[in-house]
Amino acid sequence: MAGRHDRPETGKTPMPGPFDPTPEAEIRRLLHDWARAVRAGDLEGIVAHCAPDVVWFDALLQVRYEGLEGYRRHWRRSLAERPGGLTLRVGETEIAAAGDVAFARCRHRFGARSADGVETAARWLSMTLCLRRREGRWLAVEEHFALPSETEENALRAASAA
């Protein structure tokens, strides 16, 4: 199984070049596109990386969603509840792929913006993403978000402030 582990100093995972054909680079582009869509409030861009049969576990709400429509409803509600928009920074990312199956483990810093653009309620989340290659593209079949322990979150805060 091939893999790649990034720990950039800025806390951001670098975007791969547009012509890098490796599964890891394709998945890294998918993650960057998803993050860009979240920050832009682009609902269709947010759900574009998911398979129709995606299963998703939300750490904050402690809810399990099944299917693309459930995922879409969740994000529609999340975007509507945060009229100032969302913030999202992709952090440390590890990707492993073999054949038509891949896994990604990521740290993300999620937050919301107030109506005047100030970031509020930002916190680190861990994400595990299971993907399958279908019809020539990688699609998420399972997403699991988890809250880090208090000790881990304090370490992440300290590292991102440095």
TrEMBL record:
Ranges of compositional bias, category Basic and acidic residues: 1-10
InterPro entries: NTF2-like_dom_sf, SnoaL-like, Steroid_delta5-4_isomerase
Domain SnoaL-like, first and last residues per copy: 27-148
Record region (Disordered): 1-23
One Pfam entry name: SnoaL_3
The name this protein goes by in its record: SnoaL-like domain-containing protein
